[in-house]
Amino acid sequence: MDMVIIAGFLGSGKTTLILNSIGRISERAGKRIAIIVNDFGNIGIDGKVMEKYGLKVQELPRGCICCTLGPNFLETVRMIHDKMNPDLIVVEPSGIADPDSILATMEHYRGPPLGSIKTVVVLDAVRFPILIQAMKNPLHLQLRVADILLLTKSDEVDETRLRMMEEYARPFVGDKPIIPVSSVNGTNVDKFVETLVGQ
Ligand SMILES: Nc1nc2c(ncn2[C@@H]2O[C@H](COP(=O)(O)OP(=O)(O)OP(=O)(O)O)[C@@H](O)[C@H]2O)c(=O)[nH]1
Ligand SMILES: [Mg+2]
């Protein structure tokens, strides 16, 4: 069982991206996927959307899965493994959970060993100017652990913004891929899927 963590600040587009890419990830990789979503927020998805793809949803109560619900999160992962035995488990932590602590929490996982754990960090291109002022340190933490960095809502910004973001993020992410994506017009969603599945 592999794990992909989709991390990013509140409202940065995590759930929308999961909805738009999970079917393709499942097709491309021929994988059975389980998803842990911390909070469906106002996007109004329910299990049925996922079940269309033969996927199951395990919703956790509100709150930060990596800290307050640490043991609970591990139990959920274990339960998913035992009951569903998927090839891949996708985790969307709440926007306040930093991916570093989730990775640390996973070190306490005592189930059968996981294959790979990858972290996808989602960075909101619209709110980028505010984020680098108000959330600088947590943002840097996120960037450092990213295996793939997605610049989301690319449909709402211009090329200059995307280039500026890439320049800002590059020293933190090193040679990891940085991909602008839009869940609204579909830009680069396939590229993201290929990058994730091909890695
Ligand atoms: N323009 C545009 N809006 C987007 C895109 N992706 C998501 N949104 C919007 O951004 C808002 C937040 O999207 P979510 O997918 O709920 O974000 P999230 O990161 O899951 O949010 P939390 O789980 O609450 O942290 C919604 O109103 C989406 O419609 C995108 O690619 N382009
Ligand atoms: Mg969400």
The total of beta strands comes to 7
Small molecules held by this entry: guanosine-5'-triphosphate, magnesium ion
Parts with pLDDT < 50 across at least 5 consecutive residues: 62-70
The proportion of residues in beta strands is: 15-25%
Radius of gyration: 16 Å
Query: How is the main sheet built?
Result: 7 strands, parallel
| Structure classification | alpha/beta
End-to-end separation: 15 Å
**CATH domain class:** Alpha Beta
Question: How would you sum up this structure, described in words?
Answer:
This protein is an alpha/beta fold. The chain has a single domain, classed as Rossmann fold, CATH 3.40.50. Helices cover 43% and strands 18% of the residues. The chain has eight helices and seven strands; from the N terminus they run E-H-E-H-E-H-E-H-E-H-H-E-H-E-H. A seven-stranded parallel β-sheet has the order 3-2-4-1-5-6-7, sandwiched between helices. Helix 2 links the parallel strand 2 and strand 3. Helix 1 crosses helix 8. The two termini are 15 Å apart. The site of magnesium ion has 5 residues, from helix 1. The site of guanosine-5'-triphosphate has 19 residues, from helix 1.
Which terms summarize this structure?
binds magnesium ion, 7 strands, 8 helices, binds guanosine-5'-triphosphate, alpha/beta, 199 residues, 7-stranded parallel β-sheet, 18% strand, Rossmann fold
